[in-house]
Design brief:
CATH superfamily: Ribonuclease H-like superfamily/Ribonuclease H
CATH topology: Nucleotidyltransferase, domain 5
Number of strands: 7
Oligomer: single chain
Number of domains: 1
Largest sheet: 5 strands, mixed
Helix content: 40-55%
CATH architecture: 2-Layer Sandwich
Radius of gyration: 20 Å
Structural class: alpha/beta
Distance between the termini: 34 Å
Shape: globular
Length: 239
């Protein structure tokens, strides 16, 4: 388990699951997860049976259709907790960034994030973009798959905890059909744009870890700026 900054921090209660130390304080934590596909051997266990339409008779067309369907399924694997895994979790607290990485221990990575949630009790609000539709459901489903304990207050019955602020919901203003990507919204507001499609992250993660971590930090920057524009976080004073 590694973090993006080597910053001396007060020690929180430790468990055998984690050595990460994050200070206790109230306020807001901007967060974002990045995901990748499961290893091929694990994907093989959950791969559906692909079939061509019944009106296909040519064996070559049948084969090509099945290959294309499987390729599309693999391309989307990182976006589904059944076929994907958490590679890293970026968190921005009080102007400092921590990036928790999966070094072959996804369960430790997710448990560390939940430990931070527990340790800060109700003092810390979590701010993300589409975090109620993607980040948190993905984390919870992977937790169930890996046997990681999920804090009981992340969900309140059918609703999310009041500690979670989803900037996509704020932008929608009650209209759930009014969707927009983080990159397009930030471009519209003149505060930047994403540098990579999320589906391409895994390739960057495996080929250039330094650039991948810089991408995560940039995503946190965009989310933090958006939160400031939408009035969730205070705008930083000019130096």
């Amino acid at each position: 388990m590694t973090t993006s900054q080597d910053i001396p921090m007060p020690v929180m209660d430790e468990s055998p699951m984690t050595k990460l130390h994050i200070p206790r304080f109230g306020g807001y934590a901007v967060f974002d997860i990045e995901t990748g596909p499961l290893p091929d051997e694990e994907l093989a266990r959950v791969k559906p049976t692909f079939e061509a339409p019944s009106n296909y008779k040519d064996p070559e067309k049948i084969r090509a259709h099945i290959e294309q369907a499987e390729a599309r399924w693999k391309e989307q694997a990182a976006l589904d907790a059944v076929t994907g895994r958490v590679l890293c979790i970026g968190t921005r607290l009080k102007g400092k960034t921590w990036i928790l990485e999966d070094n072959d221990s996804e369960d430790v990575l997710i448990d560390t994030f939940w430990q931070m949630w527990r340790d800060h009790s109700k003092a810390l609000m979590y701010v993300g973009f589409c975090c109620k539709r993607f980040d948190l459901p993905f984390l919870i489903r992977r937790s169930w798959a890996l046997g990681v304990s999920v804090p009981s207050d992340v969900r309140d019955g059918r609703y999310w905890s009041d500690r979670v602020i989803d900037l996509a919901e704020i932008w929608q203003m009650g209209n759930p059909g009014d969707t927009i990507s983080l990159s397009n919204l930030c471009k519209f507001l003149g505060i930047g744009e994403k540098t990579l499609d999320g589906k391409e992250f895994f390739k960057l993660w495996t080929e250039n870890r330094e650039q991948a971590l810089a991408y995560v930090e940039h995503d946190l920057d965009l989310t933090e700026r958006l939160a400031q524009v939408l009035g969730v976080l205070p705008v930083k004073a000019a130096a």
